[in-house]
Amino acid sequence: ADDLTLQLKWVTQAQFGGYYVAKDKGFYEEEGLNVTIKPGGPDIAPVQVLAGGGADVTVEWMPAALAAREKGLPIVNIAQPFKKSGMMLTCLKESGVADPKTDFKGKTLGVWFSGNEYPFLSWMNHLGLKTDGSPDGVTVLKQGFNVDPLLQKQAACISTMTYNEYWQVIDAGIKPKELVTFKYDDQGVATLEDGLYVLEEKLNDPAMADKLTRFVRASMKGWKYAEEHPAEAAEIVLENDETGAQTIEHQTRMAGEIAKLTAGSTGALDEADFKRTVETLLSGGSDPVISKAPEGAWTHAISDKALN
Amino acid sequence: MKHALPVLTVLCAIILGWYVAAVALNAPWARDQAARAGTSLTMPALIRATMTQERPVLPAPHQVAKGVWDGVAGQKITSKRSLVWHAGVTLSATLAGFAIGSLAGILLAVGIVHSRVMDLSVMPWAIASQTVPILAIAPMVIVVFASAGVTGLVPKAMIAAWLSFFPVLVGMVKGLRTPDRMQMDLMHSWNASRAQAFWRLRLPSAMPYLFASLKVAVAAALVGTIVGELPAGATAGLGARLLSGSYYGQTIQIWAALFAAAALAAVLVMVISGIERVTLKRMGLAR
Amino acid sequence: MTAALPLIAVWLGAFGLNTWLARYRGPIPSALVPLIFGATILILWEMACRSFAIPAVILPAPSQIWTAFGANLPLLWGDFVQTILKGALSGWLIGAAAAVATAIAIDRSPFLQRGLLPIGNFVAALPIVGIAPILVMWFGFDWQSKAAVVVVMVFFPILVNMVAGLKATDALARDQIATWGASYTQALLKLRLPAAMPFLFNGLKITTTLALIGAIVAEFFGSPTRGMGFRISTAVGQLNMPLVWAEILVAALAGTAFYGIVALIERRVTFWHPSQRQ
Amino acid sequence: MSVIEAQGVSLTFQTADGPVHALKDVDLTIGKGEFVSFIGPSGCGKTTFLRTIAALETPTAGRIGVNGLSADEARRARAYGYVFQAPGLYPWRTISGNISLPLEIMGFSKTDRAKRIARVLDMVELSGFGGKFPWQLSGGMQQRASIARALAFDADILLMDEPFGALDEIVRDRLNAALLELWAKTGKTIGFVTHSIPEAVYLSTKIVVMSPRPGRITRIIESTLPRERPLEIRDTPEFIRIAQEVREGLREGHSYD
Amino acid sequence: MSVIEAQGVSLTFQTADGPVHALKDVDLTIGKGEFVSFIGPSGCGKTTFLRTIAALETPTAGRIGVNGLSADEARRARAYGYVFQAPGLYPWRTISGNISLPLEIMGFSKTDRAKRIARVLDMVELSGFGGKFPWQLSGGMQQRASIARALAFDADILLMDEPFGALDEIVRDRLNAALLELWAKTGKTIGFVTHSIPEAVYLSTKIVVMSPRPGRITRIIESTLPRERPLEIRDTPEFIRIAQEVREGLREGHSYD
Ligand SMILES: Nc1ncnc2c1ncn2[C@@H]1O[C@H](COP(=O)(O)OP(=O)(O)OP(=O)(O)O)[C@@H](O)[C@H]1O
Ligand SMILES: Nc1ncnc2c1ncn2[C@@H]1O[C@H](COP(=O)(O)OP(=O)(O)OP(=O)(O)O)[C@@H](O)[C@H]1O
Ligand SMILES: Cc1ncc(C[n+]2csc(CCO)c2C)c(N)n1
Ligand SMILES: [Mg+2]
Ligand SMILES: [Mg+2]
């Protein structure tokens, strides 16, 4: 079997259920692949691992991928299992945020950095709010790993994913009715998440291209299976979690939410989604994420072969 | 036995203070919850509420104790949920890193004491090396090692070694320079070679400094390993445990992992203290 | 392999030059030798980056780092103030004071010493990466929580050294002060504290660098949008490696200066110690 | 009136290879204003006995009374000026600083300290060396500095462990004379360890001869010399007779080896 | 045949409060097999001069030749056995271990070491104390252990800095005799610092009187006593005459103060 290494963006969880399902159910094996899945972490920059040769394929968000491309690291999107964005801003109702257009000013907002800040910055730019702490803007906190800033009331709003952090807030004992959420999708500033990326030069090697084709085909099979059997997917994820920290309840719920995001994706990148992401990023205010529309940042070469 | 009573006394005082702090720190959340539910809490109810939260700001001692107990005794040792298993993973990297680091520190110190070139050139850069924030370069170290095909224990051990060599270096340089003028002169008058003066004078006089540094270094190695475990893909080890606990806001799990790590460090320090006592006694330095 | 040959040649050349220089005493060789050593490392680094075509996203060349350093001076200064001056320095001072005070306190009472030291060892060995998120939760996002992390981090090494130092007086000196009927405080002030100074400074020097690491690392667990740790983690996300290394350069410069100042004070305070006299 | 009273004092050190009986059943009474010399082969317990008087060692049996107090109470009442066998100057203080140290501890005023330091430095012939650090002085100079330190604060009881061992004959004679003068003027009680028989005879009102294994007192010789002692007294028959007696006592102690 | 030759040796220490002239223009020739004593007020440079001979200090002017080599070359050839003014035993080694140390360094075999240790311990009357640690011994015993250490490896040149200062008269007499015997048997060249005039006269073939500020040689007295010296020689008129001459030289040195 051909060896292949996949670098995840984050720790083992149902967010990456499709890949674990494909591995566990033998979909990769059927395609003659021996796939190693490497979990990520808060300070792993997946594209850096890719550049260093530590992995063949990586799961990454498109803003970070395009930024890397502009920095001279030629990486290419070969498939896009996630159709929708799961990012949102979750606020405590008591902090008085109801309408993004008027109420953010002067508030403290928790934001993820390490390449995940771009959608937020674009959004604030759309709203015309400064993020440098000046009085007529917002105060930005670099949010850590968890939802504490909201629970401790250190921030009015924090970044959450529909499938994960939001539920942690709920689990902490805050009722949904006490919360206000703003999905990036709804605000028109959504960017593509969790695509599969490889180094450009790899595509020139027919053998590698073939391997990637088989990988994408098996992975999508895994994703579609996970979409239909979220409970089973969650169990598979749990078995693969080496930290032993995950709980079945949390993962089952996450698998259900993830299914909503992958639904509607065949695995091929939708060019319209790509354009929207690029536009969002280009309008990143004084310090845009990317300065010009990227060329050749994606290809259908693999997904076409894999899925048709 | 001489130690049991004082330790217990201090322990009781700490636990008492901890409970008070837990009540104080967890009370706002309990009150908030009550307010959201539209009720208000009596004092006993409030205190009870602060003891049983699932995500307390500061978990009460018994909650942590239960967390540790579950992690240690509630699982098979080979289980991924067992703290013992995670501690074992961390310990192996810590020991490897500590061995590499303290050896490097000792060797560098020996070089510095004996060679003027090294004295002048190494020290400033050894200091500079320590100011490189490891958590920043830890992912890079991991990436670089991974690209060379080395994964698992070695990269973590390297980070541990990076942190632990410095205390040993500083302590040993000081210790090796401790012999006073007359002692050096004696060696000189016998025309002892540098090696002889080292083994028979410098090293024995450096022993107390060495052990003080080793105790610091072993704790540093543990920190290094845990740091190395954070970005290593959060797979196994106490660091991964801390991170995932932190990521899912499971305060009790964090504290349990934290105590496991601290216990590990304490055991390591105690082992070194033991070796120190025996060595110094056999050297006739402990009176 | 052939690409490595020039590197080896440069290394050997610089080593030879330094060995020759080190034979001369005086301030000029003492300053030149480390500089040549450092310059050699930088040249080797630059050469390695170029001849092996190491991608900048993995390891930028010194020239790129230097450019980034020059282009971001105001930014770097702001980060320096936030992390080093506010976070590390204040934390180090508080931590050192607390450690010395604790050492003295438990030194006086054998009961406390027996009771507190083992537990102190245990508590102080809590790894900072575990404590940092908790302290950020308690002390907020700004520099106060970073200082708290630093306090916890530097406390143990200084305490260990100080306790050892307080025990380090020789029997004759202790007997002497006993014959003068000195009170505990007098013996402490006049004999045991001075005798403990070489040990204390040992701890202080080790912890200068720990303080910097602590302050920077703590910012990974939540921070305002400035500070060296914040900048490093965001720049890594943007693959702006030259900026990352420019921050590391600032940390290295600050750390070396910090250490140097402490070493200088040590020289003045413990001038009498054999290790300072040669 | 007795100042120091030792009754049945024994002291045994436990070492890895068995107990060492440094003192065994030592009885001694020292009256106020007496000058008592201790003499004996090396290792016979002189230092140990002096240390026991100053409460630096605790006897394993027997007791020591000082002015009706226990030795330790007397120590805390600052009754002792002690010159140790080794100089033991603190390396971080200059010579003046070292002499000043006990004065600071006992709360002397700054001007008083300066006066006393000048006086004792002059007495041990070290004027001009006050600003030097210990490691910058010769062995004999360090020993003299340590004597100066013990004299500076005028304790009632002076205990001196071979203070003049490292000095040449001429300085030694001068310091002997100075010590006698100080003693005559102040009426201090002095315990003095020496290896020199003439020195012991010249200075003392009472000479205690000790002998090792176990450390004990073998002879106590009361001096019949007058209190007023010019240097020439060393040539009188009376002096020579006492010296001879001490020498015999010493020889007895050695015969045990 | 001259073994040690000092020509115009000067040594100045730079201290914070100005230079100290420890030695100034010292000329001295010591022949093979000579026993040379140095005597002088404390601080006059005796220790410094001995250290300079042993290449432990470098003179600021002048030169020292030893057997046609420089002092440092002689040191490297292990020509010196040095007894320091303070015992300087290593606290982590027992007495035997301390004596063994130079022997280990010089590569003596284990059985040879054991034999030599036993011999020198016996010579300084410390048999039975080999297993003790230094701090378990009295001051005089430590000093004797340090003498034993310097004797153990049979260096051609013995340099001894007040070796018997802490010993009582009787042991001192015995050790003096033992030293003379060793000297007669082995023909070593010995440099010996002492404060005792009789000791200097009794032991030496040449007595060097020094004087301080600046440290220099004021007199060199060649002894006319025979090489064979029973203890009773100390009562001969010849002995007393030489002692008187030394005393005068010493007094001169002191008159400068
Ligand atoms: N390391 C030093 N630094 C400065 N001055 C020194 C140093 N060593 C010795 N001296 C000075 O040099 C002079 C000679 O000292 P040295 O030790 O040779 O005297 P000495 O004749 O051996 O006296 P003693 O009989 O007391 O041992 C003294 O004035 C002393 O203060
Ligand atoms: N701390 C100790 N531990 C064990 N034995 C000791 C200790 N101190 C002294 N001794 C032993 O006690 C005995 C008496 O020692 P002490 O120092 O009183 O002798 P001393 O009469 O002062 O001799 P010296 O004239 O050589 O100074 C010696 O045999 C010595 O070995
Ligand atoms: C320090 C930190 N940085 C970034 C993220 C963002 N992030 C990376 S992957 C992922 C999916 C969530 O499950 C998210 C939100 C975070 N959470 N914590
Ligand atoms: Mg004694
Ligand atoms: Mg001397």
Automatic annotation (TrEMBL), chain B:
A GO CC annotation given for this chain: plasma membrane
GO biological process, one term: transmembrane transport
Ranges that cross the membrane: 89-113, 125-145, 157-176, 209-232, 252-275
Subcellular location: Cell membrane
ABC transmembrane type-1 domain sequence ranges: 87-276
Broad class of the protein's primary localization: membrane
Membrane topology: Multi-pass membrane protein
SUPFAM superfamilies the record matches: MetI-like
Pfam families, sorted: BPD_transp_1
PROSITE patterns reported for this sequence: ABC_TM1
Keywords recorded for this protein, A-Z: Cell membrane, Membrane, Transmembrane, Transmembrane helix, Transport
Family: Belongs to the binding-protein-dependent transport system permease family.
PANTHER family: ABC TRANSPORTER PERMEASE PROTEIN HI_0355-RELATED, ALKANE SULFONATE ABC TRANSPORTER-RELATED, MEMBRANE SUBUNIT
Protein name as annotated: ABC transporter permease subunit
From TrEMBL, chain C:
GO biological process, one term: transmembrane transport
UniProtKB keywords: Cell membrane, Membrane, Transmembrane, Transmembrane helix, Transport
Domain ABC transmembrane type-1, first and last residues per copy: 81-266
Residue spans crossing the bilayer: 26-45, 52-69, 89-107, 119-141, 147-166, 199-223, 243-265
Annotated compartments: Cell membrane
PROSITE patterns: ABC_TM1
Membrane topology: Multi-pass membrane protein
Keyword Zinc-finger applies: no
Annotated Gene Ontology cellular component terms: plasma membrane
Domain of life: Bacteria
Similarity remark: Belongs to the binding-protein-dependent transport system permease family.
PANTHER family: ABC TRANSPORTER PERMEASE PROTEIN MJ0413-RELATED, ALKANE SULFONATE ABC TRANSPORTER-RELATED, MEMBRANE SUBUNIT
Name this protein carries in UniProt: ABC transporter permease subunit
Natural source organism: Paracoccus litorisediminis
Lineage of producing organism: Bacteria, Pseudomonadati, Pseudomonadota, Alphaproteobacteria, Rhodobacterales
Automatic annotation (TrEMBL), chains D, E:
Pfam families linked: ABC_tran
Cited SUPFAM superfamilies: P-loop containing nucleoside triphosphate hydrolases
Keywords: ATP-binding, Nucleotide-binding, Transport
Domain ABC transporter positions: 4-237
GO molecular function: ATP binding; ATP hydrolysis activity
Superkingdom per UniProt: Bacteria
Xref: InterPro entries: AAA+_ATPase, ABC_transporter-like_ATP-bd, ABC_transporter-like_CS, ABC_transporter_ATP-bind, P-loop_NTPase
Family as reported in the entry's similarity comment: Belongs to the ABC transporter superfamily.
PANTHER family: ALIPHATIC SULFONATES IMPORT ATP-BINDING PROTEIN SSUB, TAURINE IMPORT ATP-BINDING PROTEIN-RELATED
Protein name: ATP-binding cassette domain-containing protein
Species in which this protein is naturally found: Paracoccus litorisediminis
Lineage of origin: Bacteria, Pseudomonadati, Pseudomonadota, Alphaproteobacteria, Rhodobacterales
